[in-house]
């Protein structure tokens, strides 16, 4: 669609379209501006409008009214997940480019697309980013830091920057290249496959970390003829880590099924440990 030195596209009005440099500015200004300019009233709106200032200067330098209309279009309420949601930025960029070049795209369409897509992509993005990727990376980082290693927090920071920035930039460019067709990866069977794959990876990593970091052992002794045998040894022979698994599943049940807060869940676990110690189970 675009090259650094010269845009591939030239409009009916003689204007040249977006170059790679222009697209990178759009993406970068959104990436650094969506949160820095966020407000309780309009959330990410100002960041989106701010990202279009270079665009406005490029295409509407001699058209103050056109520049005003562009920035007003993108000053309406907007809020979505900022990494996955950049596909909207890419789609809108291709539409705004067509408008600026005198194409047939209606001026109202970019705003309609933003309004229509920001909710569904916020839901999908939060599920993937906040629900799977961030907890998984934090779990790995905490396991590395458990022995006092500074590599734990560094792992999280670096890995999140690589994944977050890479995902954001890739989806932005894909959205610009494909237009509305870019949404095919987020609907129907494709979206289910992506979510299933990410969920499986997240479950495997969570299970591995739980097995390696959670240790629950009982001190109960059971009679075996004339001798006493440790119940823990019997459990280890049948199902190693059974008590740790029960603890994890109980915690999951409280957080996910009962919708308890993290603080309430921890207090319940503390009380449970005190009671089990009092009855000499732990």
UniProtKB/TrEMBL annotation:
GO terms for biological process: phosphoenolpyruvate-dependent sugar phosphotransferase system. Keywords: Membrane, Transmembrane, Transmembrane helix. It comes from the Bacteria. InterPro entries: GatZ_KbaZ_carbometab (IPR050303), PTS_IID_man (IPR004704). PROSITE patterns: PTS_EIID. The chain crosses the membrane at residues 128-148, 154-176, 197-216, 236-255, 262-281. Signal peptide: none annotated. The keyword RNA-binding does not apply. The keyword Transmembrane helix applies. Pfam families: EIID-AGA. GO terms for cellular component: plasma membrane. This is PTS system mannose/fructose/sorbose family transporter subunit IID. It comes from Thermophilibacter immobilis. The lineage of its organism: Bacteria, Bacillati, Actinomycetota, Coriobacteriia, Coriobacteriales.
């Amino acid at each position: 669609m675009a090259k650094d030195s010269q845009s591939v596209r030239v409009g009916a009005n003689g204007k040249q379209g977006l170059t790679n440099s222009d697209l990178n500015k759009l993406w970068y200004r959104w990436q650094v501006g969506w949160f820095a300019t966020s407000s309780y009233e309009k959330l990410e709106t100002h960041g989106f409008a701010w990202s279009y200032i270079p665009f406005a200067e490029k295409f509407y330098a001699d058209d103050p009214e056109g520049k005003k209309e562009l920035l007003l279009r993108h000053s309406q309420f907007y809020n979505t997940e900022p990494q996955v949601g950049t596909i909207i930025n890419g789609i809108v960029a291709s539409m705004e480019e067509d408008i600026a070049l005198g194409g047939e795209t209606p001026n109202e369409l970019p705003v309609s697309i933003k309004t229509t897509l920001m909710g569904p992509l916020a839901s999908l993005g939060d599920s993937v980013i906040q629900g799977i990727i961030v907890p998984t990376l934090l779990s790995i980082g905490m396991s590395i830091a458990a022995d006092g290693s500074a590599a734990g927090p560094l792992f999280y920071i670096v890995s999140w920057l690589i994944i977050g920035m890479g995902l954001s930039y890739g989806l932005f460019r894909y959205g610009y290249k494909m237009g509305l067709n870019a949404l095919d990866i987020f609907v129907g069977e494709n979206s289910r496959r992506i979510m299933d794959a990410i969920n499986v990876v997240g479950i495997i990593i969570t299970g591995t970390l739980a097995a390696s970091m959670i240790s629950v052992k009982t001190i109960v002794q059971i009679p075996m003829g004339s001798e006493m045998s440790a119940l823990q040894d019997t459990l280890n022979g049948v199902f190693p880590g059974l008590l740790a698994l029960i603890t994890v599943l109980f915690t999951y049940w409280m957080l996910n099924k009962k919708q308890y807060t993290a603080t309430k869940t921890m207090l319940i676990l503390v009380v449970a440990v005190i009671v089990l110690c009092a009855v000499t189970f732990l």
